[in-house]
Amino acid sequence: MDNAVESLAGLSVTDGWASSAPNLQRNLGILSSEEIGLAMMLLREGQKHLFDHWPEPGVDDRRKKGFFDQVAQLNANYPGGLESYIQNARKLLADSKAGKNPYDGFIPSVPTGEFLTFGNDNFMMLEEAGVREARRAAFVLVAGGLGERLGYKGIKLALPSETTTGRCFLQHYIESIIALQEASCSLVQDQHEAEIPLVIMTSDDTHKSTLLLLKSNYYFGMKTTQVKLIKQEKVACLADNDARLALDLNDKYKIQTKPHGHGDVHALLYSSGLLNLWQSAGLKWVLFFQDTNGLLFKAIPASLGVSSTKGYHVNSLAVPRKAKEAMGGITKLTYTDGSEIVNNVEYNQLDPLLRATGHADGDVNCETGFSPFPGNINQLILDLGPYIKELSKTRGAIAEFVNPKYKDSTKTCFKSSTRLECMMQDYPKSLPPSVKVAFTVMDKWLAYAPVKNNLEDASKVPKGNPYHSATSGEMAIYKANCLILRKAGVHIADPVTDIFNGQEVELWPRITWSPKWASTFRDVKRKVGECCSISQRSTTVINGQNIFLDGLSLDGALVVNANDQAEVKVTGCVQNKGWALEHVDYKDISIPEETRMRGFKVCKIEQVEINYADPGKFCFES
Ligand SMILES: O=c1ccn([C@@H]2O[C@H](COP(=O)(O)OP(=O)(O)O[C@H]3O[C@H](CO)[C@H](O)[C@H](O)[C@H]3O)[C@@H](O)[C@H]2O)c(=O)[nH]1
Fold first, then answer.
1. Cys staple from 55: which of 59, 449, 507, 570, with CB 3.0 to 4.6 Å?
2. Does 12 contact ligand 1 (Cβ within 6 A)?
């Protein structure tokens, strides 16, 4: 008999603490003191079924040890340990069974926030303020999601954000951060070269592929020391309302696990120690963002500018939301005692909450054609100081929820095992009223075009609601670039309508630029001169920092590559057969999945391509 057993809570085999689980009791001799401690905790928490099938000592001993390795890991990964996890689960499952509304006692209303208009003086002032602050920011990308709704076999970060250049989401994000870093340092004339840190939260589903994508592309130009990967672990699955842990159907020595949600990012950042390092390095802001929004960086400078000029501790970026769109609504929640919070109400909870509080029609559009509740795009900007203060109390634990799918209305059995989940945007829920929580709304065309839905689901989206597909995500990038150039004075032809993979979309000229060409609208304005025009069938690829369009008339395809020391003016009339978008059949499996999922491919028929690899001043006149 292991002496350590005696010392554990004064209990031993002879005390009979394990007598309710006789198969475990017979195996105590093969377990270490740590394992016995975990076994005691499991029995205390009603988990004796986990040992029901355990054979005599000597049979499957290694697998029994493996079971405890997993239990130890699940225990270590959850703030408060597995015991807290089971207790929290039991409570949330009871609330769910009782049909308890998590917002019981709260009255929802539309909050007030900052509404920005792209391109006006205020917007440009905020962009400049944001760029100034960017060198004191750290970026955190949550990318542990499997992307089940999209159904793509690879990681979403590796998908092309658009197929004119093929630049994938991760490349686009990293180049955008580097461009901001350079713009920020040159704006404040900082001799000391700031390096904006990037943290990527991965999971077992995405970790290896994310690392491979970075390594095989030399981190897309970022220093390897600037990028850190933190991996979230899955949590234990629950088999019933008593929060009994679910065993793997194919391996009875393994507990089933599932992802815990993007809310894990706060606990992981806290335990990584990075937040304190950033604070000592003088950083002030942490910006969280998601894996597939090709427009996001067009909105970052101004929203960071809002945070810094208004002194907001928490600022969520939002866009006008269509009723029932799969994005949470930013909502003011007033409790019966008069206290208030402004928080995201997730898209599946907004409708029932509204119906339960006197809004008979639930989640519907108002006279503007949009829901009165701004849509949360899950881009959060936190002031690092108050964030550290809060996390030192909570250790990053975030309010959880459970969403079991019951077999029938008795709510006694689940269709399949469930687990607790948490969302990163619920961080403000626990904050004291002294913390300044706000949100900033921008145009959707400028800030939000995620890639989440597979083509079948996208084609079933109600007319007028966004598809959130690979097709619409790419089209949105062209549209935004066109509207920005229009605002800067370029004559851009109107779009035509086309249908790809059953989705009707606006097809604008395919204009792209590398992030270093322009981080802000002022940059764009500075780089386009008088009398430029671009026809609808045209494609433009601007790849370089100091490329100026002046008196350019384009009808076809134009590609300009220039290194940072080359200053290139592009003028005159460029006309050629250009690059066409050719429809492809999504069922044709000889075509790459990345192409099929958007329903078209770029056919490069004819173009003018100019390259400037040497420093100097150049003028290209066609
Ligand atoms: O366990 C997880 C689950 C998800 N993610 C990451 O979290 C992000 C968001 O995941 P989803 O795209 O699945 O999120 P949803 O569409 O369900 O919803 C979230 O994004 C929406 C906007 O895109 C709304 O803001 C909504 O309120 C918010 O919960 C992705 O980058 C994903 O990779 C993780 O890192 N770990």
1. 59
2. no
HEC string of 555-604 equals ECEEEEEECCCEEEEEEEEEECCCEEEEECCCCCCCCCHHHHCCCEEEEE
pLDDT tens for residues 207-262?
999 999 999 999 999 999 999 999 999 999 999 999 999 999 999 999 999 999 99
Cβ of 378 closer than 6 Å to ligand 1, yes or no, is: yes
Residue 370 burial class via C-beta count within 10 angstroms: exposed 0-12, middle 13-18, buried 19 and up: middle
Q: What are the beta bridge partners of residue 504?
A: 499
Q: For residue range 541-579, what is the model confidence (pLDDT) as tens digits?
A: 999 999 999 999 999 999 999 999 999 999 999 999 999
Would you call 422 helix, strand, or coil by DSSP?
strand
Phi and psi, residue 299, nearest 5°: -105, -10
Helix (H) or strand (E) run with residue 480 in it: helix 470-487
Please answer whether residues 618 and 612 qualify as being in contact, where contact means their C-beta atoms are separated by less than 8 angstroms. yes
CA of 327 to the centre of ligand 1 (A): 9
pLDDT in tens, 315-348: 999 999 999 888 999 999 999 999 898 999 998 8
Could you give the percent of the chain with pLDDT greater than 70? 97
Distance 141 CA to ligand 1 centre (A): 11
Q: Is the CB of 144 under 6 A from ligand 1?
A: yes
d(CA 308, CA 568): 35
143 lines ligand 1 (CB under 6 A): yes
Distance 146 CA to ligand 1 centre (A): 10
Ligand 1 lined by 450 (C-beta under 6 Å): yes
Q: Which atom of ligand 1 is nearest to the CA of 142?
A: 35
CA–CA separation, 181 vs 130, rounded Å?
A: 11
